[in-house]
Amino acid sequence: MKLLLISGSEDVLRSVQDKLLDSFIQPCKDVGEAVAALETGVFDAILADLDYVPIAALERLPAATPVIALADAKQMDQQLVVDVVAKDDTGWANLPRAVDAAMRCRGAAESACAANQLAKVLFDSSPIAIHIIDMQGKVLRWNKAAEEIFGWAEEDVVGSFLPTIPPGERDAYIRPIQPITKGDHRPSGEESRQRRRDGTILYLNVWKELLFDAHGAASGVVSLLVDSSEKLKLQHQLRQSQRLEAVGKLAGGVAHDFNNLLTIISGYSDLALSQLAPDDALRQNIEEVTKAANRATALTSQLLAFSRKQVLKPKVINLNAIISDLEKMLRRLIGENIDLITVLNPDIGRVKADPGQIEQVIVNLAVNSRDAMPQGGKLVIETANVELDVRYSQHHIGAEPGTYVAICVSDSGHGMDAETQSHIFEPFFTTREVGKGTGLGLSTVYGIVKQSGGDIWVYSEPGRGTTFKIYLPLMSQPANAQGTVAVHTAPGRGSETVLLVEDEQCVRELVKEVLAKQGYRVLTAGDGVDGLALSESETRMIDLLLTDVVMPKMSGRQLAESLLSVNPKLKVLYMSGYTDNAILQNGILEPDTKFIQKPFSPESIARKVREVLDAKG
Predict the structure, then answer these.
(1) Domain ranges (residues) in the chain
(2) Which CATH architecture has domain 497-614?
(3) pLDDT-derived band of residue 156, with 50, 70 and 90 as boundaries?
(4) Separation CA 378–CA 585 (nearest Å)
(5) What's the pLDDT at 432?
(6) CATH 3.90.25.10 fits 126-227, yes or no
(7) Which residues face 517 on adjacent strands?
(8) Which of 36, 43, 273, 311 is geometrically suited to a Cys-Cys bond with 4, CB 3.0 to 4.6 A?
(9) DSSP state of 525
(10) Residue 531 in this model has a pLDDT that exceeds 90
(11) ∠ CA 492-577-195 to the nearest 5 degrees?
């Protein structure tokens, strides 16, 4: 052991050395000399001779090192010391025991300190949201992961009732935990429906553990919360995919059998017509039967397309050529009150698909857009080369990572809510009036795209229009003799400060992780209001605002205008599920605005951020 002795007595020094033969003893004459020694070395304990050290002076000694007082009597306040040893034969005999007890005391204190430090590190750095509440539901602790999931900072919620529980559900949340005692307690796991600060509903897996005081009474609840909203979303996608698959099998079987019946009906009708004179009274009736059979044949053809059982004649084609050939017909189809805009990337690759079926896909989507804009509007058709990564495939059942050619069809119509979007590809589902449509248009599109090895994705909000994105696998051949698929180098790194504002937490976390790995300093906010507040509190200059376009409370454009009024040199990059030209043509953003459309790969967002930061002006 290494001990520090504060005493001016040679007799005391010899007595200590005699009783603690295996210890290193460093003598000091006063507290000042002891403090200096403690600054340069570590000692296991301090022996303080109270004949040379005033009791009050012990307060100057560090609390982490236990102090044993050497005194002629034990009548003293022991608040500043762990033990008192008398300077007589009995006391010196007890000195080794006292030092050993002091060492155990210090070891226990250090273990408790280490345990507390470990608990703090685990609590603060855990990727799982953790909060602690008392038995009345008031928040005691709230970690960083909880801040990320729910949107409230710890200082906003401590002392108040758990804000994630709606007021009307508080009694039901608290009642089950209040009567529990230690003997009755069992750790519990459950599913819970709670809310974020912006009102978004979250579905969570929650594990609760009771905390108990020294008397064994429950004093609080520590909860571990994992956001399962994405899992439920994927489960919903899987169920929807399975439902469409099952309906497709049924539709294919029905269409196949019904086509046999239609063959008979049409055949005998034609035979009957060939045997009737032009002025025969029955001719008109038979002709109506033939027309009805032809319409039924068209319907069964659509059912076969949805069920992916139609006969395709795929070719290696250039989608730009298909769209260009259709453009004149589409303008007549959608009417003069709708502005058709085509933005065709000249360097797109080729795809292998049935050109007639692809034409049908484009026409069906254009008709849907027309019907969504009865008062007129804009219809934008775009093509592009895109890279769908593993993350995209994880969030879109059936999609494979790889390089694709995209057709994006966007309109400025009335849009769709989430419930409508979950049914749009089902056969015979329609939002039109009775008699205004069969409900097979989008189911046909779905079947053709899937049978061609591609994927289809829709982004829509009520009042915000709709974007359909079709991804068809890229063939190895270039689009034409001049055009080639662009080859990109790795995106450059940076050290600038980026303010990322995105209301979708998963997207926000993904982009933050991507940019942080590229060396950027990333500040995050869940909406425009929080982003503005964060920028006002930030002491360092923000180099780039990376913001979603459509957000609650404040749009990305409004946020950018507010920040640019303070910092005119700020670079701005917008992102959205709507396509670039659709947003520009709809007047949400001004021309020449920097923009990247969702979904994007980590590489593409990193490259775009570097491109915007390096741009002049």
Answers:
(1) 2-122, 126-227, 232-306, 315-473, 497-614
(2) 3-Layer(aba) Sandwich (3.40)
(3) confident
(4) 7
(5) 57
(6) no
(7) none
(8) 43
(9) E
(10) yes
(11) 105
